[in-house]
Amino acid sequence: MERAHAATASSFAMKGERAALKSIEARAGILVASDSPSDAALVRKLLAQEFEQIFLSTTPDQAVKDFESRTPDVLVLAFNTLEKSERYYLGLYRLSGKIHLQPHRTVVLCNMDEISQAYQACRKQYFDDYVQFWPMTNDAPRLLMSVRLSLRDLRAISEGGPSAAEFAAQARRLAELGSMLDQHVAQGSQRIEGANRAMAQAEQDIGAALDGFSSKLAQGNLPGVSRLSDVSGLEQAIKRLKQEEIGQRLSQVADSVQPIEQWTDDFRKGCEPHIESARALNAMAEAVRPMILIVDDDEFQRNIVNTLLAAENYRLVFASGGVEALNILRKMQPDLILMDILMPDMDGIETTWRLKTMPQFAKVPVIMVTGRSEDAAVRNSIKAGAANFIVKPMDRDTLLAKVASALRP
Fold first, then answer.
1. What is the CATH number of domain 2-158?
2. d(CA 64, CA 92)
3. Cα 121 from Cα 88, distance rounded (Å)
4. Average pLDDT score over the chain
């Protein structure tokens, strides 16, 4: 009976969770962009079956304002050609200062003849999904499903927590902390041993000094001091002084060090399992390949970088321009970015500036790649947030050294 009640409660909880998810998806913001008000209205009518907040953007001069004021979760590009959709979205990235700050997904509508091109555009991450829509709207449910999947993707990313690379970075730091503790404990033990040796030596030196003083006094070798008649009594007095006063005080000091020595030994033993765990974490962290995003519009240059880094323990992701790079960054966080400066759609300096305004990428190092090392390009790159430079043609050793330095500063 209890199991039945538990199963019923679980079923109600799951239904409640699904209902909450549907409610969140229904309230998500969707912006339909088109140069045809009638087409945009048609798409809105289809989406209104399942979604509540649907906005239209049909005036080219208002495109940026519409996006920034609506901050949509999903952008549906309802232009009747793929070229218009690409031009519209590229214009948003060029003119908007906020589009890269707004997490969103793009769904592009295409006609039957453009399916292959739309697929390639999504594969290159210009867009997130495509729906064959023109000239017939037979696949209207596919559009609804695409929007839902986009919203679930956004939700999964927002709730996904830290990446494996971020965990790996913290694990490496934890391992470094373990090594540091180990080193400091060892140094502490050495200093305690040094203090014990110094006290033992001090006791010997004080005893020898007192014996010498007693001998000189007994022999009358101290200027201004007469020869003593009771040498034996003096020697006994100095002996008592060494044993009962000086020796006892030094022994007390030595005894006070012993608890510290014991504490150090206990501390080392207590930390050892944790230090071993940190070392094991570090070993696992080394198996996580750092992700490097290479941004260059020249396929030949991308192939060169791929060849130079292929043998290293890096995961390489490529973008053929600034817009594609910013699209990729909406879905993943690299550990390092190699950014070409001269690119047609959005140059590397502007792309770097835009990504550096996003808090999650503020600390991701960017190495600028250029065929020219003019002062203006260097100054502007540094202002944008670049960490280093590489000049083409690339030297493999220089590239590897700068990449390693950026990943492990």
1. 3.40.50.2300
2. 6
3. 14
4. 81
